[in-house]
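Team,

Forwarding the record for the chain on the shared tracking sheet. I've put the sequence and predicted structure together so nobody has to dig through attachments.
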Amino acid sequence: MTTTLCTLFEGDYHFGVVALANSLHASGFTGTMFCGYRGPRPAWASSDEVQAGSVRLVLLPLETPVHFTNYKPQFMRRIFEELAPGTDSLLYLDPDICVTAPWSFITGWIESGVALSEDLNSPLYENHPRRTGWRQFYARHGLTLGYRGAAYVNGGAVGVTRARAGFLKTWEDVQSLMGAEIGGLSQVKLDGGTSARMRDPFFCFSCSDQDALNAAVEASGDTPLSILGREAMGFTPGLRVLPHALGPRKPWRRRYVSDALHGRPPGPADDAFWRFASGPLSAWPASTPRSRTRSIKIARLIGRFFRAA
């Protein structure tokens, strides 16, 4: 099975793209990753095609008013239909994720069903008000949602085979209907949202991209799903597959010793990021990953004594 990767980035998230590409190379992946971006091309890319060992990065400048976190199904459908019409499967990963499992495990995951991973806020049980809110909203638009388990999945990783690509159309349709309700697909919780509804944590679409993805799961009928547990992204102890750096403190922004003194020790995503930061593709001087790794070790020692309240 041939698999194509994709991601979306803007601003300093290009640093995450480098570590993600290097982690894919280390996992044994050989192939192409399409990288949609807004703004200037990163300094580490001399052209719109860059090689990171066995990974070919194709950088695609995009113009869309949609926030990238709400643009994933559209981008994935474009890749399937236009950019990689011969690929058997497609995996989207956020640029603040690294792959720490062998590539053979990843392909098995995608072959098993629509590949998804539980969020930190999972589970969300059958009659949770959030799920009830989705069902009531979509019923008004003639779309029936059906409970498919308590897992609330993270929007940072979605994999589909070509045979299951219909899931992407369902996801896009669900998002389009949601867009009118939240004030447009430029609205996201990530930026605080400009509408009052997006600032309300009890609104059933306050986490727009993930809420739409989870509603799409309920709208997907009997399409097979393959859902990894919370440990996969490093949210709980266990076998880590896709360590994911949540929140604004991305590994490339952190000052680990200072953070540890304020009760915020490093996590699995920090370890993974700096492990893969040095090559084969690099965006830093060779000394930077080494010094950050040393800082993480010091921060871990500090973390034994300081914890955030």
